[in-house]
Task: structure prediction
Amino acid sequence: MIKFDRYPWRSNYQWEISDRALKMAESKPERDAKKLREKLPLLAEQIEGGKIENFDGDAVRAERIKNKNDSTAEWRQKLAADWKRGRKWFYSLDEKLQKEIIERWEGNRYRPKTPVYFLGLLDIMTGEQAKRLALIAEEDEKRRQANADKQLSLI
Result:
């Protein structure tokens, strides 16, 4: 059957934010104001910036960890949806083409076993990519011909 890579992340991994990242978050307004003052010297005395009063490092840490975990979950859901779409497409093909696809998929050990490459292989092996490229080439040729006609009419 089709071999694939599971996930590039450990499933129960909890992201952490370093103390240095928190210090950088706290001093960001000050750094931004300094850059603006250097960029706009005529307005330098009007540009305010400094440390954030009442900076809550724990809240920033919790928010960043939540964002990172949510991002990882979204990415894993996208990969799962891509696998489902690829399998659905794969099983809708005839058995002969399925065998060819499996041979090509498992024959290249250097290809990453990800859904993106699987969908790309399906696209190539089913001929959908060639159809799409032919359509693009045809439209491009029409556009070039129209531009050439336009250029001739200007002369």
